[in-house]
Design a protein that fits this description.
Largest sheet: 8 strands, mixed
Strand content: 15-25%
Radius of gyration: 29 Å
Shape: elongated
Structural class: alpha+beta
CATH class of the largest domain: Alpha Beta
Helix content: 25-40%
Distance between the termini: 68 Å
Mean pLDDT: 77
CATH topology of the largest domain: formyl-coa transferase, domain 3
Number of helices: 19
Number of strands: 26
CATH architecture of the largest domain: 2-Layer Sandwich
Bound molecules: adenosine-5'-diphosphate, magnesium ion
CATH superfamily of the largest domain: MutL, C-terminal domain, dimerisation subdomain
Amino acid sequence: MGRIRILSDAVANKIAAGEVVERPASVVKELLENSLDAGAAYLRIEVEKGGRRLVRVTDDGAGMLRDDAMLAFERHATSKLSDVNDLFAIATLGFRGEALPSIAAVSRLLLETRSADETTGTRVEIAGGKLLRCDEAALARGTAITVRDLFFNVPARRKFLRSEQTELAHIASLATHYSLAHPGKSFELLHEGKSLLDVTPVESIRERVFQVFGSRTLSDLVELEPCETVLEAPAPGDAPGDAEVRRLRLIGFISQPQVHKLNRNSIYIFVNGRLIRDRLILHAISSAYHNVIPPACYPFALLFLECGFDEVDVNVHPSKTEVRFRHGSLVHDFVRDALRQELIASRPVSSLPPAAVARPASPRTPGALPAQAAAALPFSEFSQAIENHGFAEPVTEPPQTAAEPPPADEPEAIPDFTLRRPQAPAPRLDFGGASIPVSEPPAPTLKLKTPDTHGPLPPGLLPDETYSLNQLVHLRPLGQIHESFIVAAGRDGLWIVDQHVAHERILFEQVLRQQAAGRVERQQLLIPIVLELTAAQQVEYARIADELHASGFETEPFGHRAIAVKAAPAVAGAADLERLMFEILEIGESELRRLSMDDVRRAIAASIACRAAIKVNMRLDQAKMEWLLSALAKTECPMSCPHGRPIALRYATREILKGFLRI
Ligand code: ADP
Ligand code: MG
């Protein structure tokens, strides 16, 4: 008796229907999800010509019984759902029974499979939806599905495919993401025989991140403390244990504030192991980074949310990439607050850009990259390709005509996407008896976990290389550069602090605190300032008048198109008040998205802080510099100014030692 059954019309009609096959990457996605649903521990993806000519996914999962192998190609044939109620708590990645028939309809497909319960396997061949063969075959347990000549019978679709590189980048991105979500499984991706990704099972996501991205990326990331919240308290009549499934758990990695991505393609969100694109969570991430990174920038984020299967509806989008949460706003706020807190707690600091560090010239040919940089190149190209293209986005662009991809037989047609295993780690800080003291105790809020809790760490990431802005309290100011940047000696290197943005951060948090307590210090103006407003500014004024009041401004309409400012926050000073007011009234226009009132309040605080902060080109005496650094150390978020620029750079002792060739 097989396991696959055809869904009844009643269930089939409730399924968000739609074309699941848009491009080679969608084939890979569906096949990978099937393999994962089948409990595979080993997944191998082979691709030729960016997936247009061939996609093959091989797994060591449960396999299919002989009868099922045929049935799997019927529409709405699935082993994963049986009645309508199952649709409200989907535990598997697939559930519609649509993928295999849809793929088989537009390609030449070969299925080879054997279940552990049968001694022989089955081979099924289908082209353009027509069954060509179905034979018994001696096969290993598991399943291999080969999809050749995608869209061979739908030329219109084939024309819409992008270049080989683009399609390959989408596939590589998908494979990478799924491998991140399943660190305990092996993933292999081969393009025309060349290995692009090859990861063996590891114990933690952290180790998988290291396998996939290497230590450079890992050191730019902060690991979230696992956190959870209760979505819904159990009702009085609920059975004990029910409360378990109403929890929401979050783990993952987010980037430090100095990482600025130009689009959202470096944000990966998984809900119950499913890769999704979700506006709600994307918004929560942006809110967490609001005032931490510049407005048009995005962080890198790798988030894994786990909740009860009935908490999230995955049946809202044809390609299952969008979901709907039952407790949407709770989920949003939970994610935002968890990320914000982690950013505040870890206080990561920017290093001086490596380019600023003099390196001995490479002994190789002139102009050649140093060996280290060359080794890193394939990955940066790879990640750039992914960043530029995103993943599994619908093919909406017209077919390329002018900029046709170069012919495939040119060797440079495919960029080197190889995900190398990280290079042998750099030697530890050890300079053969030199007497410079460098052994600092690790910072208390160490985010790179110690080996005992997270398995062996590569030695390049030893805790003594980590640091945080908590070190700010130990800084000793030495002087200023250009009367703009404070140079300070720290226990772990040389620091440079931008005096304007540092003060901006201090004032910003002070204003926020006063706003929250409803006690903003204000100054009455001797003569009210009258401002003429444009129509747009009047609308904005009406919208944010309460927030202005809460931030210490006393304003009132003055005639038709003007307002009178009678009092202002004490910190702002009277001189710049007019410009400050206009700047605030333009916040709504300059921000691309509509801001919530909370965001408006923060934006007002940021404007006040920016106008009131000490400027660059201003001489500071020793006492002022000391005050500034210690006040900065006390802020919640001393890593970046409210507009997202970094405040402090550190030239690590290690880099100094390297520069003097002592290590
Ligand atoms: P769905 O995944 O929505 O059930 P599919 O069309 O993707 O629908 O697959 C149909 C059925 O074929 C699945 O329910 C499953 O029983 C079987 N199947 C597909 N791929 C595999 C695989 N790699 N290993 C085992 N069974 C598979
Ligand atoms: Mg499926």
